[in-house]
Here is the input.
Amino acid sequence: MTVTLDFAALWPFWPELLAGLWTTITLTLLATVGGVALGILGAALRSGKPGVLRTLWGIYVEVIRNTPFVVQLFFIVFGLPGLGLKLTAGQAALLAMLINLGAYSTEIIRAGIQVTPKGQWEAARVLGLTKVQTFLRVVLPPALARIYPALVSQCVMVMLGSSVVSQVSYEELTFMANLIQSRTFLSFEVYFVTTLLYLALSLLMRQALLAIGRKWLGSGA
Here is the structure.
């Protein structure tokens, strides 16, 4: 059997692929910044004294970490309208990715905080720093440096997981790939190119985040 590949036939569709890639990059950037910020807040709550907020955040973390991302996305898109909250596909995709990364990054960052020597907390109190100042200036930076490679990996995983949002008709890279495949029937060519684009984006994102860590955290990543 002779197989003929026709990558040249994809050339007219490059604007669509690049538009989908840009949408994926934008969505990932927003989700990464918001999700890590949410994780820092959650790690602070989960590392503090027992209370209602700590318990509620713990429930949120366990629910998200033990349910599929696609189910979380469908709940936001199809479930929330039953409560009167309707979101666009883009808003739902971003919210789902934020919530997902926020839960995972909470536990990753909390792991870094838990190994912080008690002497650092005590030294900060002696210097007259408030709890918030102690957390942001003394505890958080070295904690982030310790777990930064794991946090970067989780951010990349969330970017790769963004392909799922094509299921709710959000026009990111996978959606565009499916659309082009349905028009050309060049399944191998379309998904081969899409795979290379995701691979390149993953490698670039990882290197960029690790470079940021080396610059701002002194991370040995």
Observations:
- The chain has a mean pLDDT of 90.
- The helical segments are 14-46, 52-65, 69-79, 89-114, 118-126, 131-161, 173-184, 187-216.
- Residues 17-217 form a domain with the MetI-like fold fold (CATH 1.10.3720.10).
